[in-house]
Amino acid sequence: MSALSRASGVSVATLKYYRRAGLLPPGTTTARNQAEYSDRHLRRIRLVRALQELGGLRIEAIREVVGAIDDEQCSLHEVLGVAQQAISSVGPAKCPELAEVDDLLRQLGWGVSPGAPARHELARALGILRDLGSDVTVDVFLPYAHAVEPLAEQEVGGVPADGATDEAVEYLVVGTVVYGAALAALRRLAHEHHSAQRYRRRAEPS
Amino acid sequence: MSALSRASGVSVATLKYYRRAGLLPPGTTTARNQAEYSDRHLRRIRLVRALQELGGLRIEAIREVVGAIDDEQCSLHEVLGVAQQAISSVGPAKCPELAEVDDLLRQLGWGVSPGAPARHELARALGILRDLGSDVTVDVFLPYAHAVEPLAEQEVGGVPADGATDEAVEYLVVGTVVYGAALAALRRLAHEHHSAQRYRRRAEPS
Question: Which ipTM did the prediction report?
Answer without folding.
Answer: 0.75
